[in-house]
Design goal:
The protein is 68% helix and 5% strand. The protein is mainly α. A two-stranded antiparallel ribbon has the order 1-2. α3 runs antiparallel to α5. It is elongated, with a radius of gyration of 26 Å.
Length: 173
């Protein structure tokens, strides 16, 4: 069995055309069916995520050889693909934190300026607004801590994946 990665904007049909370029149309159809059966994680139609691993099963009934894709060191390949996805993970998580922090800052701004002016001398209202400010600031502090923890966790995960990749590479040879 061999393993290869999907390239950018490539669906399974394009993948088969690229890897099995010497096959005729009928053979490619058979290869495509075999690859779909061996890779249920690729059931979605359309372009796949670049780097997605594709197991290429042995195809004894189809007399065609794939382009060189390397023997499967599956653990190493999967770890490398996971490491390559870390920036995407950070990009997906960061906007949520940014949006939440922005909403909290807007709440603080309103509570600390406009509301203070409107409250006047009402002590009960002043106490409520002070509590809102305190609670909002505490939540904003938590968001900032979460952002730092996320950054550190992703860096640590990247280091761990690099170490695992080195181990799988040294254990193969």
């Amino acid at each position: 069995m061999k393993i290869a990665g999907i390239q950018a904007d490539e669906d399974l049909t394009k993948f088969v055309d690229r890897v099995f370029s010497s096959a005729n149309r009928g053979q490619r159809r058979q290869v495509l069916e075999a690859i779909r059966a061996a890779n249920p994680h690729l059931s979605a139609a359309g372009p796949q995520i670049a780097g997605t691993p594709v197991l290429i099963p042995d195809l004894p009934d189809i007399k065609v050889t794939p382009q060189p894709v390397g023997d499967a060191n599956v653990p190493q390949f999967l770890l490398e693909q996971a490491r390559r996805q870390l920036p995407s993970l950070a990009e997906a998580l960061t906007p949520k934190l940014d949006q939440h922090a922005q909403q909290l800052r807007a709440t603080l701004e309103v509570a600390q300026s406009d509301l203070k002016k409107a409250i006047g001398r009402d002590q009960d209202l002043k106490a409520r607004v002070a509590e809102i400010v305190k609670t909002t600031q505490a939540e904003l502090d938590q968001v900032e801590k979460l952002r730092q923890v996320q950054k550190e966790a992703l860096a640590e995960l990247d280091d761990d994946l690099n170490r695992f990749i080195k181990r799988t590479t040294s254990n193969v040879g």
